Amino acid sequence: MNRNKWNNTGWSDNEPTEEIVNSFKKGIIKTGDRLLDIGCGFGRNSNWLASKGVIVTAININKNEIDEAMTRAVKLGVYVNYFLAEATNLPLEKNDFDV
């Protein structure tokens, strides 16, 4: 599969989505939670959650988007465990997540 054929430039914003912000404010996602973000795109939600103390593992099928997400994480001074992978073939063994 050509992992770079997907183009999600419309999702390249740096701000997290309203759903993620509200989930954090309501305590659905909490500081210290282990979260798996499947289809993380450019990392806007993953990086924001990491800045709030959430332990984030994130995957995406597009290498360019993962590279950009990692660059943004470094600029923000946050750590997210990013993986290039397909949602149907996760490279994770015996990981358990809260969210």
List keywords for this structure.
99 residues, alpha/beta, 3 helices, disordered N terminus, single chain
Topology:
Blueprint: H1 18-25, E1 34-38, H2 44-51, E2 55-60, H3 63-76, E3 81-84
Parallel strand pairs: 1-2, 2-3
What is this structure, in a nutshell?
The protein has helices at 18-25, 44-51, 63-76, and strands spanning 34-38, 55-60, 81-84. The chain is α/β, with parallel strands linked by helices.
Characterise this structure.
The chain has 99 residues and is an alpha/beta fold. It has helices at 18-25, 44-51, 63-76, and strands at 34-38, 55-60, 81-84. A three-stranded parallel sheet has the order 1-2-3, covered by helices on one side. Helix 2 (44-51) links the parallel strand 1 (34-38) and strand 2 (55-60). Mean pLDDT is 89; it is low at 1-6.
Low-confidence stretches: 1-6
The counted number of beta strands is 3
Strand content: 15-25%
Task: Please bin the fraction of helical residues.
Answer: 25-40%
Judged by helices, strands and strand pairing, the structural class is alpha/beta
Main sheet overview: 3 strands, parallel
The average pLDDT is: 89
* Rg on CA atoms, Å: 13 Å
Shape: globular
User: What is the rounded distance between the termini?
Assistant: 28 Å
Number of helical regions: 3
In the sheet with the most strands, the strands line up as 1-2-3
The helix/strand order is: HEHEHE
